[in-house]
Every structure is written in C-alpha cells, then in structure tokens.
Amino acid sequence: VRRRLTTATYGYALTTYKSQGSQWRNVVMYFSGSGREGEWRRLLYTGMTRATEQLTVIHRRLGLFRSKEVA
Q: Per-residue confidence at 8, pLDDT binned at 50, 70, 90?
C-alpha cells in the first residue's frame, strides 16, 4: 500500500466562486442537480473558462459525463 501512495499526485478542489481569476490545465466540474437553473448556468460558464487544456463535466441528475479538449 505504501508503495502505491508514493506515486500518487495531489489534487486540489475549489468552489467555482473561489476559482474566479485563476486557470488550470485540467478542470473537473461536478453538479448535483440542485439549485436554480440560472445559477447552474453561471457556475458552468465560470468553471468552463478556468480550463486551458481539458474540461470534464459531471452532472448527477442528467447523467452527463463528458470530457473535452479546450485548446
């Protein structure tokens, strides 16, 4: 077990609000399906514009799992 843990890489999680003004190569966004539609769209747009190479969106209620190269 210890050998496997030494090859792991660390990841970071932020809220979409906290991520504003920053960019990362790979972004994974998860939506639970709760909340207002207008709010969901605004968060999706903000999160999408944080990715420079790859974006993955996971939406529990819609069953959406997509990965797309950004650039």
A: low
